[in-house]
Amino acid sequence: MNHAKFGFLRTVLAMLLASFLAGLTFGAPTGAAAQGKPMTTVKLADETGSEVDYAAVWVAEALGYYADEGIKIDRRTYANGPAGLLDFANQSIDAEMAAIVPFMQFAARGGDFKLVMSVTKGNAALVGKKEYTSYKQLDGKNVGSPGVGTIHDAVLGYAEQSQGLKFHRVFGKISDIAIMIEKGEVEAFIGWEPASAQAIAQSPNMLHYIAQMPPINNAESLELIFQTKIAKENPDLIVRFVRATLRGIDYIKNNPKEKTAELIAKKMNDPKAVPVALTALGSVDVTQPRMDMPSTRILLQTIAKQGKIPADLVKDVDGWVGKYVDYSFLEKAEASLKNK
C-alpha cells in the first residue's frame, strides 16, 4: 500500500472514530430511540413561565425518562390554563398541565377529560411591594391576577371570603408582574413559578414575597389531564407518560434542590437562572402524585360562591371530581416501577 492510500485510509478512519465518539458524548439517543423503536409525540400544554410548577415533568424530560418510554413531548405554551383548554376542547392537544379550578370549570360547561395525576401543591405566590406583609394589608387595594378562570384568582377569592377582605382585581400577563407593580397599576400580583421569583429578581429593592404559599394548607393546584379518547384507545401511552413523570418525582425527592434547579434553569433556556429556580421551588411541592381533597373542596366551594360554577355541583365535591379522576394509570405505573 503506498503512502497516499495509507494516509487517505487513516484520515477516513479518524473521521469515523470522531463521529462515533461525538455520538456517544453529545446527545446519543437513549431508551426506545436508541433501540430504533418509533417515538410517540404527545402534544402537551402548559403555561408561560411555569417551568418550576411542572418540575417533575421537565426534570424527567431532561434526564431522558420520556425517551426511555418511547415518548417525545411537543410543548405547547399558553397564557394560562383556561387558554390551553380552548385547544384541548377541539382536541388539537393531547394533554394539559393546569389547575383544578379551570379543569372543573371546563367540566361544568360540559368538557370531558381524564385527570390522571396531581403534579403540584401550593403554587400561588403573592408578590408585592415590601411595605406589605399580609393579604389583610391589601384590603381595598389593586391586586393583579393572571385571569378570572385561574386557580390564583380563586385563592384571592378564598382570602376575601375567609378574612372579610375586598381586592380590586387587575388582570394582566404573568410576565408583566414587575412592570405592573413598578408602574403603580397594582400593589401586588398573585401568580405561579418561576414567573413570580423572576419578578422579584427584576426588582429586588421593591418586591418580595408577601406570601410565598397560599393561605390553604397543602393547597391542591396543578394536575395532568389527557384526552378521554387517548385513555380509551391508547391507555398504555398514559401509563408510560405517568411512569416517566414518577421517575422525575423520585429524582427530585432524592437529590438536592440545587440539582433540580439546574435542570429547570436549562428548560428556561437560561442556565444563569439557577438562583431564581431555587427560590421558586420554595413556592411548590411537586412530589405528591395524588390530589389533596380537603383543599380541593375549599377551592371549588370558593369559585361556586364567586358564581363561576353552579352551587349544586359542590354539594358533593368528591363525587363530582371523582367522575373525572382516574388513578388506574398512576397505579399501574407505580406497580411497574416497584417490580423493577
- Overall shape: it is globular
Predict the CATH topology of the largest domain: D-Maltodextrin-Binding Protein, domain 2
* CA-CA gap between termini: 54 Å
What structural category arises from helix and sheet content? alpha/beta
Largest sheet: 6 strands, mixed
Briefly characterize the structure.
This protein has 340 residues and is an alpha/beta fold. 46% of the residues lie in helices and 18% in strands. Helix 3 crosses helix 12.
Detailed description of the structure:
The chain is built from 16 helices and eleven strands. It is an alpha/beta fold and 340 residues long. The chain has two domains: 207 residues, D-Maltodextrin-Binding Protein, domain 2 (3-Layer(aba) Sandwich), CATH 3.40.190; 87 residues, D-Maltodextrin-Binding Protein, domain 2. Strands 2-1-3-10-4-11 form a six-stranded mixed β-sheet. A five-stranded mixed β-sheet has the order 7-6-8-5-9, with helices on both faces. Helix 11 crosses helix 16 and helix 12 crosses helix 13. The longest helix is centred in the N-terminal third of the chain and has 23 residues. The N terminus is likely disordered.
Features:
D-Maltodextrin-Binding Protein, domain 2, alpha/beta, five-stranded mixed beta sheet, 46% helix, 340 residues, 2 domains, 16 helices, disordered N terminus
